[in-house]
Give the backbone structure.
Amino acid sequence: MTLLTATGLHKAFGPTPALAGAGITVDAGEIVAIMGPSGSGKSTLLHCLAGILTPDAGTVLYRDVDLGSLPDARRSELRRTEFGFVFQFGQLVPELSCVENVALPLRLAGIKRRDAEARATEWLEKLEVAEVAAKRPGETSGGQGQRVAVARALITGPKVIFADEPTGALDSLNGERVMTLFLAAARATDAAVVIVTHEPRVAAYADREVVVRDGRTRVVEPAA
Amino acid sequence: MSLGHALLGLLERGPGHGYDLKKAYDDQFGQDRPLHYGQVYTTLSRLLRNGLVQEAGVEAGSGPDRKRYAITDAGVTDVETWLGTPEKPEPYLQNTLYTKVVLALLSGREAADVLDTQRAAHLNAMRELTRRKTDGDLADQLICDYALFHLEADLRWLELTTARLDQLAKRVGR
């Protein structure tokens, strides 16, 4: 089943075009890597897919609903309930403990503190970072912090997780640990994952890749 | 890397003598190792036998260099197939890949497609290794990592070359 379909996306920042006719489809439960050199438009594409940015032209359909046709409030709700996000760093609230950070999306959805934190603790265990539950993000290592961020992205049971260079700030061993645990958890919940990365070794965890070059997507079918 | 394909690719620009081909090859690819005449003529007679080139006139005089060769339709198809088929991803491909890219540029084909096709094949191989690594023990992981790092280095080269295609096109005279 196709979850996301983007066609003919154009987006410019001032005079600089970031996307010039990009398109992509993402199926349910699929892991897709978006690759490309710096400045190719891959993050802009991710932000358009996730409804964070509105394209100048072209459409993004999520389950056949045009994101551009939704009022802002409905789009925000979608991002909170159906989508999850993992960025390179700096996404955790520094004043909250790790378990509070992971529980936050549930708390915002009106779930009681005790229940939310119990589920957050389970997710921290799945990501093998239970030991940092009471620590603040600033007291954890980069790899631990990213696993906390992944737990927070997954706790609402999203259908799609958008990850922008999720291992970009980590060394290769920690990066691999994060990728392995992240994708195992995503596959276990049948969430689709869209990962922006310039690292081939990260892209190799995905089911397939889409290359963005000069704001356009290229899909090359590998020879059998 | 196949010399036959390289000579065929060079013949696509127009018929030539063995000597012309050797010179064109040496100019483009033979900086470190110029071709021997013997290699050129052995390869040309094989291509002739297989119908990939044909004789295009013999000039008066003596010596093997009097014959002109032209690529046949079958020869063009052969080059086309070779350029369109990714090499088996393995280390030390640079000579073959460089040759493919230059010939694609010389013949006015999309060199970016050659690089993209190869990139897709490399990533496929990396995906397979990543799967084996994820399911394997430490020894599997280390062996797979070795191959993964080498393939990654190739991929970086492919990306960089893609970014420099315009420059390279000028350099090879297209």
User: Anything to note?
Assistant: The helical segments of chain A are 42-49, 72-81, 98-108, 113-126, 142-154, 172-189, 200-203. Chain A touches chain B through 18 residues (CB under 8 Å). Chain A is about 35% helix and 25% strand.
